[in-house]
Amino acid sequence: MTQSRMTAARVEFSDDLPDGTTLLLVERRGEVIWLVRRGHMTPELLDAINDHLCHFVRHGQWIQNWGEPGAGALPYAPAC
Known about the structure:
Order of helices and strands: EEEHEE
Mean pLDDT: 78
Largest sheet: 3 strands, mixed
Low-confidence stretches: 1-5, 73-78
């Protein structure tokens, strides 16, 4: 399986969210990112969530399927 067929999932801080938005999910084939308005989550919590995401997917507890007929689920490629 090539890197382009793997899924990336993570949480990141953002300074560019729309007014009144503290959390925004950005999703496209192969990538899921939760953007959190800076100041609404500690860096320690962000790191802990990303660590848990890595753990989940490394142990087969995370797959992502974007609903394309016959495409099947994509395994997660930990960025950590």
